[in-house]
Amino acid sequence: MGLFDFVKDIGHKLFGKDATPEDAAAKIKTQIEVASLGITGLQVAMDTDSGLCSLSGSCPTAEAMEKAVLIAGNVQGVAEIDARGLEVPAPPAAEIVPKIEYYIIQKGDSLSKIAKHYYGNASAYPRIFEANREVIKDADLIFPGQKIRIPLD
After folding, report:
1. What digits encode the pLDDT tens for the residues 49-81?
2. Are 59 and 68 in contact (CB under 8 A)?
3. Which domain covers residue 117, as residue numbers?
4. Which are the contacts of 78, defined by CB distance < 8 A and separation ≥ 6?
5. N or C terminus of the chain with fewer C-beta within 10 Å?
């Protein structure tokens, strides 16, 4: 995996504009660790001027890596995630890799509206909520610019 773009001025406010790169990185690292994704050797580096956040470590699954990127990327002040340092094991040949699409929430969106678009059924919104539980704490509290995962399988 490589670089992921995010909206720098939108997201969860974990640190102020005057935060040192070390403090910002520590707060992002804590957010990822609290999600209990099973990433070992997690390291976070943050350039508060450019908004570049670099992640490294060993992820147990591709899903854990995707969620770590979204947790870090949906933080105010982060414009880009460099995930090239995250190691993800190749899935066994017999394992079916779920298809995931990323979606940036627009003004006027709701999880129901997004579910209607992707699944044809607004009441399927819990599927999107569950796939993003680490990023979305309340299904009614999403914001424009937030990037989420949409499971397609």
Report:
1. 999 999 999 999 999 999 999 999 999 999 999
2. yes
3. 100-151
4. 6, 8, 11, 28, 46, 51, 53, 72
5. C
